């Protein structure tokens, strides 16, 4: 009788659970039994592992073989257990010393020829191994850079099972034939899965030569100011205006003015993109704000996450620490839009399925864009709107009150005038200039919030703002009057105060004054308060 064990990791959402892979050999009719709640793809590993061992020059044991995955109560899926299963079997057959395998975590899929293929979710899997106290991890060679992002873990990248056996038995490591230059590498096929994108991508901040410049947007002083405030304080934004006014242009340029992600934020975003199979080739670490723009036909599951079995990340998680842009927002399903209310408040989404409950990160900056009516000409002077009043009300009512109450900034994007379009209106600030102001404002907020666990003004509860960081005396008089008149809810008043703090940070003031609160009210309600839209005017 032979016994050996090693470890691998099962992913539940974007969190990992270390799984002990045990192999037991007993005399009897040759058979291979896999237990421990495996799914279909994991059950098929029996055939992949057997072929990989034989084609790697090993001898498959002709005995009764039982492979157990513990804890047995955790559902396990995917092909990432292949490498651990193969080494556990070889350890039980005494081809590898079982003592060498006990404290190693192995992640990787095996091809029938013994090559080690990459799998999704390597980063969260290695993070889970490190949290559990493991210091040695074996991964496919092409994902070694991603696994090396975790500090305190020794990472071994291998191209084949033969190489791993040689390393574990202190034998000469065989060389694997490299891919010829100019030919595609089939080993990279597992890193990026088509059909999971949901209109996602990374902002152009990483490539200044091809970044979308905010100076290209003509006019739109109010919308540009709102965009800058949204970036500085991570406030949600609603842009309403006729077609062609520049709503999409503004939203597409928002990620580039956001600050680069911190190390902790980069690991969070990279983990989500790794699980979704969306890490860019050659870029194991995502350090710029992601941008996600799903089509208005997207289902609730594609927005918040879901699917069969263990829920997978949706658009809100793919936009974590970045921008979620919902163009033509009234065309989205109303239930799908209302499902965003929880992550807008909490910064995460909890999805319950029969296979388990998953908590996915979803701290994103939402931008809604909408036309004023189905034909888009409801507010245009000199243009005849073909929509009746009831149609306009019904169209605008598709965005529910509770959802809009969670949006801090609501701006009407007016049509561009002829003088602005031909260049007489003056060019606005570039992306680089605005990004510098946003970064300075974020630094002021971070210094103020140091030690609290909050990072941006939008995360600070209203009670803390009113007690720990009060505004100037009398600054909130106008906002409190709007609360009494019913123009603001209690949540709305708190959000006005958060925006006022962001305006003050952009202007370099120690705390919000009357002008800062007035501008915050103007940006939220759309009602003119007699203050200029330019940040810092009169400062």
TrEMBL record:
Coiled coil: none annotated. It comes from the Bacteria. InterPro entries: AAA+_ATPase, CHLI-like, MCM_dom, Mg_chelat-rel_C, Mg_chelatse_chII-like_cat_dom, P-loop_NTPase, Ribosomal_Su5_D2-typ_SF, Ribsml_uS5_D2-typ_fold_subgr. GO terms for molecular function: ATP binding; DNA binding. The keyword ATP-binding applies. Pfam families: ChlI, Mg_chelatase, Mg_chelatase_C. Residues 314-413 form the MCM C-terminal AAA(+) ATPase domain. Keywords: ATP-binding, Nucleotide-binding. This is MG(2+) CHELATASE FAMILY PROTEIN / ComM-related protein. It comes from Streptomyces formicae.
